[in-house]
Structures are given as structure tokens and as C-alpha cells.
Amino acid sequence: KCEQALIATVGVRSCVKFYSAADEIGASALKEHCSGLISAHWDDLTGEDFAHMSSALLYRMLKSKTPQPLHGAVRLLREDVVFLCLVENHANLTDIVNAMSSRGELPLELALRGRS
After folding, report:
1. Is 70 found in the same domain as 85?
2. What's the pLDDT at 1?
3. Per-residue pLDDT reduced to its tens digit, 15-32
4. Are residues 62 and 83 in the same domain?
5. Same domain, residue pair 71 and 104
6. Does residue 8 share a domain with residue 61?
7. pLDDT reading at 103 higher than 80
8. What is the pLDDT of residues 34-59, one digit of tens each?
């Protein structure tokens, strides 16, 4: 019941924080609801929305939601998550760093644009 009440209060601006909390306490229905909101509003969310999320949780989420987690980590300006991605994929670094996004962008382009 408590989990259902929380689901009713989740909005776009709060879904990332609720996702993190749901992961910590094992509230699977709440986490799934928040995951759907994150997917639906991905382009509206910024690095600030994910600033509090642990690098491990964010990396797991990016791997499950995007075909190119490196691009997502760069877009969110999360160097810690970029590092996790590069370490995990050390055998194919050339492929990963030279992979084009669906919008035709390289991770380095995203990084340079995000820092300006």
C-alpha cells in the first residue's frame, strides 16, 4: 500500500530520486514505474537530475535503457560513469569511443558540447 501511494506522487522531476530510493529498499513496483518515467522523459532530464545517483546504479540503468551507455554517461556529465563504462569495455575501447549515436554524434562531440 505504501509503495502504491508513493507511485501516485512521483513526477518527472522526482522520478530519478524515487528510482534510487526504490532500488535501495527493493521496492520493485516503484522502481519500475520510475524507470518508465525516466524512459519517457529521457530528453527532458539533465545531469543535475542524476547528480545524486550512485555511479554503479546509473551505469546499470544506462546499460539497460540505452544501446550506448557511454553516450548517456557523457551527456549527463558523469565522469565516474564514463570511467566504469571504459573499464568494463576495455577490450573494445576503439569501437565504443568511435560509435555514433542515433543522432550521428560521437561521445567526444557530446563531451565537448557539454563542457562549453
Report:
1. yes
2. 79
3. 999 999 999 999 999 999
4. yes
5. yes
6. no
7. yes
8. 999 999 999 899 999 999 999 999 99
Of the pLDDT bands very low, low, confident and very high (cuts 50, 70, 90), residue 116 is low
Q: Are residues 37 and 2 in the same domain?
A: yes
Host domain of residue 22: 1-45
What CA–CA distance (Å, rounded) separates 40 from 43?
A: 8
Say yes or no: 66 and 103 in one domain: yes
